[in-house]
Queue: 4 jobs
Job 1
Amino acid sequence: MPAQTAPPTTANLNAWLNNFYNAEAKRKSTFPSSLPADAQPFELLVINICSLSWSDIEAAGLMSHPLWSHFDIEFKNFNSATSYSGPAAIRLLRASCGQTSHTNLYQPANNDCYLFDNLSKLGFTQHLMMGHNGQFGGFLKEVRENGGMQTELMDQTNLPVILLGFDGSPVYDDTAVLNRWLDVTEKDKNSRSATFYNTLPLHDGNHYPGVSKTADYKARAQKFFDELDAFFTELEKSGRKVMVVVVPEHGGALKGDRMQVSGLRDIPSPSITDVPVGVKFFGMKAPHQGAPIVIDQPSSFLAISDLVVRVLDGKIFTEDNVDWKKLTSGLPQTAPVSENSNAVVIQYQDKPYVRLNGGDWVPYPQ
């Protein structure tokens, strides 16, 4: 990470940001050209949930929900790098390269930046699932054009609709979608697959059918955490070898701050971009015992890609003893830089600074 020794003037912060991007442009995960002959097949399920940050969980009073103690690995200082859905999904799908500017998300990236393509080359079948239709804001289009995810959307026929989005579009029941994933992938359970699941039950403006008022966030979050926890139990029972990674797109700004009211996400402030990321392995011969391993170094998507690379041979599922310390230490660190099209937020000398519309940097009001 570039040094932060110069005083925080606009010129110095601009120079630091340029150094950051130059350094990030040189970073990438190194995938092998092939897997060893004795590699063990497993499935990767990446759950990309909208509107969930540590700040939101705290505001909803759900920090002690049992779900959080059931992960094997938990990132406690993970930066989503944006506060909007489209860019968040693109960043996750391009996790195998260092962090790029917001503008560059909409330019083609090197082929080796696309996490799911890297896995496809090694024989992982791609799956794409959504808990919604993907139409709002051209989300599905962005996932395809900029995230490189070309595989067909998993069938949504007859999925129960539990909520409606603010635009009236269906929000499907997560348990039903995850069960459909279990059914669809059942046939390839002894082969390799990689699934990207994007879901938005916590999105602002979601309401119950026939009710115009936005549904209570805490009730929706409680339900989602309960469902995910129950799904984990099912997965454990199934005996399938699965690596689950839960990565929020960005927070929901449930609390608001001195610069933005609750629900507003125009500026990717630290409370919106500091998101809970959890990793859990199922079907292991020697499962992780005790509390989750906490990674509290500043991290972002490259750390997820590197973690996937470290377990590609699937031996983690069959080993008598797993060296968790080795697995989780020395993952790439990324300085917290977040941006939307007109706002950039960085942490400099342990303080947040914001730049709007290319103007001067100012301290983010605390």
Note: The chain has one domain: 38-326.
Job 2
Amino acid sequence: VEARLPTLPQPNLITIPPRPVTTTGTQWARFRASAARTVTMANPSLNFITFNQDHSCLAVGTSKGFRIYHTDPFSRIFSSDDGNIAIIEMLFSTSLVALILSPRHLIIQNTKRASVICELTFPSAVLAVRLNRKRLAVILEEEIYLYDISNMSLLHTITTSPNPSAICALSPSSENCFIAYPLPKPREDSDSRRPAHAPPQSTYVSPTSGEVLVFDTLTLKAVNVIEAHRSPLSCICLNSDGTLLATASETGTIIRVFSIPRGQKLYQFRRGTYPSTIYSMSFNLSSTLLCVSSTSDTVHIF
């Protein structure tokens, strides 16, 4: 965000007083219901939260627009009340943001000029969006679309295995401009399993594997396949300069870190003994720390 906007006034909070002695139960219930409706209208529901690529800003998508905050010092620097924002992604600290307002529709908006730069429509719902200064990646359940961010031209379409969790990571770096995602596993059906009406060369795509495919978005070529886990993947992330990849499987007890693009295993961390679903992982800017959050109601820092 190129220009700091004045801080907007906070909505008035409604304090529900203690139940008065002279108020009947029915009257009190009506009062509480009315107050709850007012609070809901004043405070839109939260849909999406994400940091930008260098963690200097926090973007929040709500049912009534989006907000952008500086992280240090923490302050609100932009606010829009337009649209039900399902996904928002920033391009570092610039005024460009990618917005998903309807499932198949993506908008690139300039917040400084309050203008729409381009609009893209996809064949199925957009599950995630990733940005760096060179590329825009749009992740669908079975496809990844890669765009040149300078002119928004479509460069390449990657076919993936079914990926409803949108497990995918794009390096913030413009030099090591890699994207990582679960390796697709196509194989031919055996004659005994293939229906009579199926084409002779029909293929079956297995669920997400524990292997990661590393793809160079500049040369548009796959550079490595990393055998990260035996179980299917649940989360992956790349560091700020695109040289480290962290992976976690559905089991969630072990986190591994690999060099990119060589794929050499550098570190292995144990999160815990009991299985847990890992939802988020992030390196710090100097790549000395890795933060992991999961369904275990804990945050681990390695």
Note: The longest helix spans residues 25-42.
Job 3
Amino acid sequence: MAAAAAAGQVIGLLKVRVVRGSNLAICDPLTHTSDPYVVLCYGSEKVKTSVQKKNPNPLWNEVLQLSVTNPTKPVKLEVFDEDKFTADDSMGVAEFNVTDIYDAAKLDLKHVSDGTRIKTIYPVGVNYLGAESHVSWKNGKVVQDITLKLKKVDSGLIVLQLEWAHVPGVTLYVDMECLLGLLKVRVVRGVNLSICDPLTHSSDPYIVLRLGTQKVKSSIKYHSINPEWNEELTLSITNMMLPVKIVSSSAFPITLLPSATSFFHQDLLSISV
């Protein structure tokens, strides 16, 4: 049986597909364009893409590889504009965590359906996300899609696709949060929901499910107090005693306090077949 990875040892390979950039900064005022390339730094490693000439919306679709030794250390990303005669100008910086894809890679997912979302990460002030990021199980691999919003610059997004590759002979340490199963919750509809907009006598409702640190949500149904979702949300079950909390809220800016309820997924065992 393979031993767990020691400190400082390579525990996995992170394949980073740099897909594209969008609305990047203009560095050449004469041509009103830029010659961008992306640099990734992780510890002492430094890898970069090719240069896309005269293109503020470049399409790279190139795979860069990093050796992961410490999953708590973020990957730093910087976009540069190539200049033949002076130092290359920075076109913005960002970073992303390895922990989300690493935590999923530790789980036994062999019996999970292809395309299942394991985790969703939301854009908040402390991260660089420009959109929701999803960790998924696809084609027998743990993958994650990331859209990064560049900082220290007026505009710019970078789209990445991550893939975790196991290192032969290395077994990842699996703590008490072993995956016991996946709970698929189909949000069918809402009936006679609260009216949060007194002007239109309606609401813009959406549903949020919380389980531990996980949070998944439905789409927003505008101007409806009897919404039809018929959407499937997935939660990873690691502790049968944690309740699933259901919060119904509205996207209306002056929404009333959201209503909430909860249920224990262990109760579903009695009706499973």
Note: The longest strand covers residues 12-22.
Job 4
Amino acid sequence: MVENPLNFQAYKKEITLLDPILDGLGCKEAERSHQTFDEARQTIWTDLQKAYFNGQVMWLRKIDKVFG
């Protein structure tokens, strides 16, 4: 997920929290859609970015379903 090392340093805490969330959502999506884990995780990340940018908070429900 981290492409630029400077971005990682600037958002180290946020990335540390986000990575396990994306891993959990990616596992569920891979099971559901028969994608590889990496493909599913990338799909989740892309969709989450779009939803956040557009102010759609329904994504919180997906996180809640996976982690409770």
Note: The CA atoms of residues 3 and 9 lie 11 Å apart.
